[in-house]
Write a structure and sequence with these properties.
This protein is of the alpha+beta class and 341 residues long. It has 2 domains: 217 residues, no CATH class; 115 residues, Cupredoxins -  blue copper proteins (Immunoglobulin-like, Sandwich). Helix content is 54%, strand content 16%. Strands 1, 2, 3, 5 and 8 form a 5-stranded mixed sheet that branches. The chain has a 5-stranded mixed sheet with strand order 4-10-9-6-7. The longest helix has 34 residues. The chain is globular. It starts with a helix and ends with a strand.
Length: 341
């Protein structure tokens, strides 16, 4: 296992992918810190960012050790991943509501140590501001981005606890410069920029929470999602142009052959049409892919699989019900549709 390559992956695609998924938690840390103690020295905000990143790297190093020891038995199920994704989205919405002072109840979104621990810390004259960032940083193991999941699969395949811990440490270390740069730059804002930052933070938190919720809707193939609305519009255009139904897949020896290329940017093709009652042979292929797309889910046909970075897997299914069925990565970031006619 090449730890240098894993570090570079974290430094590039991993950092961007993880920021898209976990950036809302970092924004929550900074926003709550600023709101709870607006007059505190700016280095307090910097400490909050540092504690978030420290907890993140500790948690993932431990996770790497456990995955290397216990393998796939320690992996979270898809249902649990979706639960934590929804929980994170709701947490970000509650944080936005707290920043806008919509209701006193949203003040409880600011995580505090237990009362007994808080008293002990107060007696020792230390600040409690580290607690919330540390908890949220540790929480990031429950909402892995696509590239993180790819590294986790690599660790499980390797089967070594020490190498697993080292791989996850190297990967998260690679993601830290981007997280630290954005976090510290935000934390250095002066007090007079606080209101502008608050409005920006609220907007980011709401958009990212909606993005997370939409991802869950995609994975469970909900009839309501952003992509379903876009698809309905596209289908209307196809009917008007008379091109609907022209993308039927080929039938070989009575079996409909479908080959999906899993790329770093999603699935190709993203849309295809098959006939009801005729068996479908679905082949998934990856070639040097390290994104969420490799964690393929097709809920309507009970297909859940994690592809290696370069891999090929084939599944057989027989659609007996007409309609449109969504397949997606485990985070709902990349999607596609199989229409049965």
């Amino acid at each position: 296992m090449n730890l240098w390559f894993i570090f570079l992956t974290g430094l590039t695609t991993g950092a961007l992918s993880c920021l898209a998924v976990q950036g809302g938690l970092l924004a929550s840390v900074i926003a709550n810190q600023s709101k709870s103690d607006r007059q505190s020295p700016q280095n307090q905000d910097s400490k909050a960012v540092a504690m978030f990143l420290l907890a993140k790297i500790i948690a993932h190093t431990i996770l790497g050790f456990l995955l290397g020891s216990l393998g796939s038995a320690f992996q979270l199920s898809l249902g649990m991943r979706l639960f934590f994704q929804i929980f994170t989205a709701l947490f970000m919405l509650a944080t936005a509501a707290n920043l806008l002072n919509l209701h006193p109840i949203f003040r409880y979104v600011v995580i505090q140590p237990p009362a007994m621990l808080r008293k002990m810390i107060k007696k020792s004259s230390k600040n409690t501001a580290w607690f919330s960032p540390f908890i949220l940083g540790f929480f990031t193991i429950f909402i892995p981005c696509g590239v993180t999941q790819a590294v986790e699969i690599l660790v499980i395949t390797n089967g070594s606890p020490v190498t697993g811990a080292a791989a996850m440490f190297a990967f998260v270390l690679g993601t830290m410069p981007l997280f630290a740069t954005i976090g510290l730059a935000t934390a250095k804002l002066s007090a007079r920029w606080y209101q502008i930052f608050t409005k920006g933070a609220v907007t980011i938190l709401v958009l990212m929470s909606l993005y997370s919720i939409n991802g869950v809707l995609q994975v469970i193939d909900s009839p309501v999602s952003w992509q379903k609305g876009v698809l309905a519009y596209q289908k209307l255009q196809q009917y008007e142009k008379g091109t609907n139904g022209k993308n039927l897949v080929a039938i070989v020896n009575g079996v409909q052959q479908v080959s999906i290329q899993v790329t770093s940017g999603g699935y190709m093709p993203k849309y295809f049409t098959v006939k009801a009652g005729v068996p479908v042979e679905l082949t998934l292929q990856t070639n040097d892919v390290y994104t969420c797309a490799s964690a393929f889910t097709f809920r309507a046909f009970n297909i859940y699989t994690n592809l290696k970075s370069t891999d090929q897997k084939t599944f057989t299914l027989t659609p007996d019900k007409k309609g449109k069925f969504t397949f997606a990565c485990s985070m709902g970031m990349y999607t596609g549709v199989m229409e049965v006619i």
